[in-house]
Every structure is written in structure tokens, then in C-alpha cells.
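Suppose a classmate hands you a notebook page containing two proteins, each written out with its sequence and a corresponding row of C-alpha cells. How would you begin to make sense of it? This section walks through that situation. The first entry is reproduced here exactly as it would appear on such a page.
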Amino acid sequence: MLDSTLKKIMAFLICYCVEFNIQADPLNKENIEKIIFAHALQSSNMGNFRIQLDTWPSNWNSLDNDEIIVKSFKKINNTQRFLAEIQHGKTSKKVYGVIIEQVPLPVLKITSSGGTEITKEMISIENFDQRFVDGQTVTSADYLLGQKIKMQRSLKANKPISSNDLERNEIIKKDDVVTIDWKYSNLTISIPAKALKSGAKGDIIPFEVSSKKRIKARIINENQALSGSHT
């Protein structure tokens, strides 16, 4: 949730940009939504959201560019509906609309094809309407790490990602022999070990060393795992 200082800064910047644009652009629904949003952002305790007007009086499109003032903004009861009163010159209007909650979601910066392993550098965060998020939508960037896109699939840039389009990129398979670096304080011991189950990068899985002893280690890459105090 945005803190109050950041919300005030955002509201000021939005108002400044919108007022600047209105001097050159016709009065329209999009500009009014921006102004009402800036007012709501500054005066409410809501989290991430956007607003959408139900309708916009078409006869207002021909008005001159006097200053726009939002006289009031309030939610209607406990719904996601709002009522705003705006003034344009000597004319006042009451307009209705909906408050659309938004959530930050991880997306890919570029469109990527099947078989691609997702790395940290590929991921960015964008806001999306809550109503478009379902049980399969990936909501954590950390979840994407160690995953790859399923074959015959592709993921578009800047779009929400479904877990149905992903699969674990198991870089170590059961019975693979890798090197385990066991670290304690400033001491490091490297030993060969056999994986007792498959795993992706970052997974902690059991290994068996030559003495038949089992230890757990975190997968670093396809040839290396890390155990000890830094696991």
C-alpha cells in the first residue's frame, strides 16, 4: 500500500501532467478520469486502484478549457462504486463510476517461446485489474525463478502469467552425480554426491555421499549444490 507521502507526490504529478495536457487537448472522459483519480488518490486510504466513469456527457466535449475542480469524491456505501462532483467553469456535474482494484503481478519484459528458462533479468512488475486474476495467475516473481515455459507455448510481454504455462526446470535429475560444497565458517569442503530426487535451481533436495550418509543441499546449478551453514 502506498504511504501517504508517496500518494501525495503521485497525486501532484498526475494533476500537473493532466492540467498541462488539458491546455492543449479537448476536454474528454480520459482526462477527467485522470483528474478524479488524482483527487481520490490523495484523499483516500485505498491501495492500488484505477477508476472508470460509467458515462461522460458528450456535450461537455465542446466546452472551453477552463479549470477543472473535483469538489467531492466518495464511495457509495461499501461497494466499489463512487460518486464524484466536478466543476468546469460555472457548470457542475455529478458523475458515477467504478473503483477497480489492481494488484502488482510479475510479467516478462519480452515475448518468450517454449523451453525458455525464466531468469530474474527477464521479469518486471506491472499493475493489473484484480478481476482478471484467478487461481492460476502467478503473483510472485520468486515463483517464476527456476521455471521454464512449456514447449508449444509462448508468453507475451507485459501480460499476466498462468502457472499452467510453466513447468519446473529440473536441472538436476535423480541419480545425477554433482559436487556439493559444504561450508562452515571459513572452511569449504567439496565432495561428490548422488541426487536422491530431481530438483530445480534453488531447491533443497537430499543427496547421498560415498559413505552412504544422506545430506541436504541447495541446488546452485546443474553441477553444484551447497550445504552447511549457507544452505
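The notebook's second entry, a different protein, reads as follows.
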Amino acid sequence: MKNALHILNICLLAIILYLYYLKINVGENIWIPGILLIIGVIFNWILFYRLINKKRKEKK
């Protein structure tokens, strides 16, 4: 379940990056995709940080 969540989160982040790229090229308002991008990066960092800590605890 957690692996599926990580894969889904990475896919959603890639989609947001693509939308952000499209908005920059068109010259439209980039605030909403930019904010979603920042939230996605932070959420990814939190999930991976928890996953790495869990793996470290399992090794001990």
C-alpha cells in the first residue's frame, strides 16, 4: 500500500511539473500550479523521509 502511495505521489508530482511547464510557456497565471508544485515536493519529501527512517529502523 505504501509503495503504491509513493508511486502515485511521484506520478502526480510529474503531472504538476508538466502543467507548470505548460503554464509558463503560455504565459498564464502560474500561481496555482506553482503552489501545488511546492506542496507536492514537500509531501514527497515527508513520505520519503518516513520511508527511509522506517528502513533504517528495520535494519537495526
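A careful reader of the second entry would note: Helices lie at 2-26, 31-59.
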